[in-house]
Amino acid sequence: xxxxxxxxxxxxxxxxxxxxxxxxxxxxxxxxxxxxxxxxxxxxxxxxxxxxxxxxxxxxxxxxxxxxxxxxxxxxxxxxxxxxxxxxxxxxxxxxxxxxxxxxxxxxxxxxxxxxxxxxxxxxxxxxxxxxxxxxxxxxxxxxxxxxxxxxxxxxxxxxxxxxxxxxxxxxxxxxxxxxxxxxxxxxxxxxxxxxxxxxxxxxxxxxxxxxxxxxxxxxxxxxxx
Length: 226
Ligand code: 13P
Known about the structure:
Helix content: 25-40%
Strand content: 15-25%
Number of helices: 9
Order of helices and strands: EHEEHEHHEHHEHEHEH
Bound molecules: 1,3-dihydroxyacetonephosphate
Largest sheet: 8 strands, parallel
Number of domains: 1
CATH topology: TIM Barrel
CATH superfamily: Aldolase class I
Strand order of the largest sheet: 3-2-1-8-7-6-5-4
CATH class: Alpha Beta
Shape: globular
């Protein structure tokens, strides 16, 4: 299973160093087949060898250049980072449109990065029965056969609300996605210690992308240990 933690705009350089130390220690005793990925804020990237995959929440599709405030591949390389989150609804809400997400996807693919591509609909869209149509649009013109692709289904109404999507709805979307791609599929949105087991038991679910419940490293470790 994949256990990914998106720390969003939380943790400092100092606190993430402690987080990573505790996680490294704990991972010595977990199942080898699990894949653990953490996306810290970029200011907190660590340069040392880690027992988990360190990913970036954001990057700009360039190696370097005149892109004020952005992170290029050159900066990721310095920390050995080759795992990227693309399409998170919180970045889409800040204005990342399909064109930019596609450029990020293609750049990441060109450099063999592991991509976690996020998709997910608003509650209104779900109520109108338009989820599949909407997800199809979010995945349009992306190479769903890319071998280093993971897709995370994160319905917007479940992110940060404490209310995960219903199991039957997650199951229906993951089944739909699995008909389009062989990529591993994750679920994200208010995953916590009470619901993780039922979520991981869903057919086609290859893991979870956790926000709030992973901010405390002890809680994240407990989710991984199950
Ligand atoms: P929460 O787990 O806080 O709902 O966040 C999920 C998320 O957005 C992970 O990318």
